[in-house]
């Protein structure tokens, strides 16, 4: 097979859902692994995961309210593009919230969460962006727990 330039189809790897942004992420860690909130819509955590299907992968973005432990926004797409996935989940969460001023939105350092359009939406609604340490899933443990291991 090697001489003929032919190879068998591989099992296929898992997709990478956190892609490093091209710009430095200057958002502070406002949570510091204290996943507690005094009431609803005080602290949200967000993450992206995937589901393998026969035709490839489907990506899911969740926004979870830390106080209620409920998913307040979600989106499903065959693309991880900011506008197609996490921004839709964020928009759904914002619509479901009565008040967002002073709310903290905690996520990983993925390019979708660092993007200008995503952070503009947070700012428009008085939501403070927060992130943990690069490459440390414990810094976004609640969101990782909702999504399960990737």
- Which range does the strand content fall in? 15-25%
Summarize the helix and strand pattern as letters: EEEHEHHEH
Q: Under CATH, the topology is which?
A: Nucleotidyltransferase, domain 5
- Main beta-sheet strand count, sense and barrel state: 5 strands, mixed
Helix content: 10-25%
What's the CATH C level? Alpha Beta
The figure for the number of domains is: 1
Order of the strands making up the biggest sheet = 3-2-1-4-5
Globally, the shape reads globular
Description:
The chain has 150 residues and is of the alpha/beta class. It has a single domain (43-147), classed as Ribonuclease H-like superfamily/Ribonuclease H (Nucleotidyltransferase, domain 5), CATH 3.30.420. Helix content is 21%, strand content 25%. It has helices at 86-96, 111-114, 116-124, 141-147, and strands spanning 43-53, 56-65, 70-77, 104-107, 128-131. It has a 5-stranded mixed β-sheet, sandwiched between helices. It is globular, with a radius of gyration of 17 Å.
Question: Which properties best describe this structure?
Answer:
150 residues, 5 strands, 25% strand, five-stranded mixed sheet, single chain, Nucleotidyltransferase, domain 5, alpha/beta
């Amino acid at each position: 097979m090697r001489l003929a330039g032919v190879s068998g189809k591989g099992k296929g790897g898992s997709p990478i859902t956190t892609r490093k942004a091209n710009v430095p992420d200057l958002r502070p860690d406002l949570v510091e692994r204290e996943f507690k909130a005094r009431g609803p819509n005080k602290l949200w955590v967000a993450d992206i995961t995937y589901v393998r299907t026969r035709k490839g992968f489907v990506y899911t973005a969740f926004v979870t309210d830390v106080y209620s432990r409920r998913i307040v926004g979600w989106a499903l797409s065959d693309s991880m593009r900011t506008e197609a996935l996490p921004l839709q989940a964020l928009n759904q969460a914002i619509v479901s919230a009565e008040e967002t001023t002073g709310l903290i939105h905690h996520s990983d350092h993925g390019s979708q969460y660092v993007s200008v359009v995503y952070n503009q939406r947070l700012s428009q609604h008085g939501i403070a962006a927060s992130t943990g340490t690069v490459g440390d899933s414990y810094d976004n443990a609640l969101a990782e727990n909702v999504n399960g291991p990737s």
